[in-house]
Amino acid sequence: MTGVLVLNASYEPLHVISLRRAVVLLLKEKAEIVEAAERKLRAVQHEFPLPLVIRLVTYIRIPRRLTLPLNRRNVFIRDDYTCQYCGRQPGRSLLTMDHIIPRSRGGGLTWENIVTACMNCNQRKGNRLPEECNMLLRRQPFRPRYMAIALFAEARDHEVWAKYIPE
């Protein structure tokens, strides 16, 4: 158990916190349990089900202007560490970032123009457009929502969290 998923009052995922922090929020009645494991947490005067997902009682406004930095780690997380041309997952050390429209042809450094590619596919594509070398994208790249991308990587480990994190 690595953490507890925190939902806003509107059931929007906010963050992953430690079990200790989750218990403090529950004791202060600032949150309520949405999903719990069968195990119990016991103390002298209290007994709690082990929280997996909690929801804040009051709504927290999230500024929508926050931008997620465009870097290797975040692109790999968005693309699930999978080559967007062949679908393989060769491992982090063999993955690269590829410009769909090469920079030499006017392609920019944007979320919508960068995908994860394995070294073989990136070399095969070279300085061409995907259509010119018969390499189709498995999924169109997109600009991820700020809060959700941080949760994508950990969500795979918890099937309970999957229903609260949008794809």
What does this structure look like?
With 167 residues, the protein is of the alpha+beta class. It contains 4 helices and 6 strands, in the order ββαββαββαα. The strands form 2 sheets. Strands 2-1-4-3 form a 4-stranded mixed beta sheet. The two termini are 22 Å apart.
List keywords for this structure.
167 residues; alpha+beta; four-stranded mixed β-sheet; two-stranded antiparallel ribbon; 4 helices; elongated
The spatial strand order of the largest sheet comes to: 2-1-4-3
Radius of gyration: 20 Å
Helices and strands: which structural class? alpha+beta
Q: What is the chain-wise order of helices and strands?
A: EEHEEHEEHH
- Residue share in helices? 10-25%
Compact summary:
A four-stranded mixed sheet has the order 2-1-4-3. Strands 5-6 form a two-stranded antiparallel ribbon.
Chain-wise SSE layout:
Elements: E1 4-7, E2 13-17, H1 19-27, E3 31-42, E4 47-56, H2 72-78, E5 95-99, E6 114-118, H3 119-125, H4 146-155
Parallel strand pairs: 1-4
Antiparallel strand pairs: 1-2, 3-4, 5-6
